[in-house]
Amino acid sequence: MNSPHQVMLLSEMKPGQFADSFVLLVSKERSITRDGKPYFRAHFRDNSITATAMIWSDTTWFEDCESNWTEGEFYKVRARYDESKYGPQLDIDRIRLANADDEADGFDPGFYFKRSRFSSEEMFQELTEITNTEISDVPLRNLVLDILSAYEEQIKTIAAASKNHHAFTGGFLEHVLSVTKTACYLADKYLAYYQKMQPPLNKSLVVAGAILHDIGKLRELEYKPHGSQYTPAGRLVGHILLGRDLVREHAVKIEGLNPEMLLRLEHLIVAHQNLPEWGSPIAPHTPEALLVHYADDVDAKFHMMATTLENVLPGSQEEFSSRDNALRRSIFVGLKSNE
To answer: HD domain: from which residue to which, for each copy (predicted)?
Structure first.
């Protein structure tokens, strides 16, 4: 690829445009057509959008894709860019691994890794401050602080998921902080609204549960900048039980921690996804667990919907987004003029 083709970001290309681009191979998925022929759906991205290349069995790149294309590697492609109802598409003419010589054309691997738009240092500091100010139960606060301290670097770095929501560097911390702030608001609201509850709503427990609800993901996912992958324990046990185990391991060191408080915290972690088909073996049986479940659920789903709308292409005349998103539904964009 030494000919003087223009090097562009995918996000800069117009439909029908042919150019060279540096891209990260995020994933390649092997499937079978209705006629029984194999094909690959390869997803490439730059720093802002992902485009799909369909690699059919009777085309030039099928064997190379099957044998040599590696997820997490950078490539230089010469391709035609198009847009369809399924999102951005690439028709690849040439492809090779990117190398150090490509730096002269602006290739920088760090540019392509998606990360939180917020500072991990500032988010972690804010989460620690919330722990200190909003958890009044001292042993429970010490438990949360002990866990945050033990896993600080991992918490600042990992994604919240391998895909679907907050699946980028720092995404776990962004999600946890957002859930915690929402949970604080809900706890204050319902404490004031339902003052005759016995026992009363425990805000300390709500906040601790919000901070720790996904803590098992530290053991469920193996962090890689191009995309997290499940560990064997993540596949076989899952983050909910891994999280309860992690909390139990740290709880034995905390002086004065009330056994019932620990039991309620464990329930909150185990029940935070509400339904067996979502991963929880039991539904929320306490008001604190109920609040954290909904704080978690709305944050994850709103992120999915917001990301879909952020990826609507400028000038698009489509009234609905593609169904190719984490929610698996078309999101209404708005009515378009017929003129």
So the answer is: 172-301
Examine residue 97 and state whether it is found in any structural domain, yes or no: yes
| Longest CA pairwise span in the chain (Å) | 76
Of the residues 112, 128, 159, which one is the last residue of a structural domain? Answer: 112
CA 333 to CA 212: how far, in whole Å? 35
Using DSSP, state whether 261 is helix, strand or coil. Answer: helix
Integer Cα distance of 196 and 1 in angstroms: 73
Residue 327 inside a domain? The answer is no
The reply to whether 62 and 191 lie within a common domain is: no
Residue 338 lies inside a defined structural domain of this protein: no
Q: Which residues contact 100 (CB under 8 A, 6 or more apart)?
A: none
Q: From CA 99, how far away is CA 220, in angstroms rounded? A: 32
d(CA 155, CA 169): 10
What is d(CA 137, CA 47) in angstroms, rounded to the nearest whole number?
Answer: 43
Supply the Cα-derived Rg of the chain in whole angstroms.
23
**CATH code of the domain in which 173 resides:** 1.10.3210
Local confidence pLDDT in tens for the 339 residues of the chain: 444 568 899 988 989 999 999 999 988 999 999 999 999 999 998 877 889 999 999 999 999 999 999 988 899 999 999 988 778 999 999 999 999 888 888 888 777 777 788 999 999 999 999 999 999 999 999 999 999 999 999 999 887 655 555 567 888 999 999 999 999 999 999 999 999 999 999 999 999 999 999 999 999 988 765 567 788 998 899 899 999 999 999 999 999 999 999 999 999 999 998 777 677 789 899 999 999 999 999 999 998 888 888 877 677 778 888 777 777 888 898 888 765
Q: Provide the residue range defining the domain that includes 283.
A: 120-306
Residues 6+ apart with CB under 8 A from 71: 25, 26, 27, 28, 226, 227
Q: Which residues contact 36 (CB under 8 A, 6 or more apart)?
A: none
Evaluate the CA torsion angle 306, 310, 314, 316 in order and state its sign.
Answer: negative
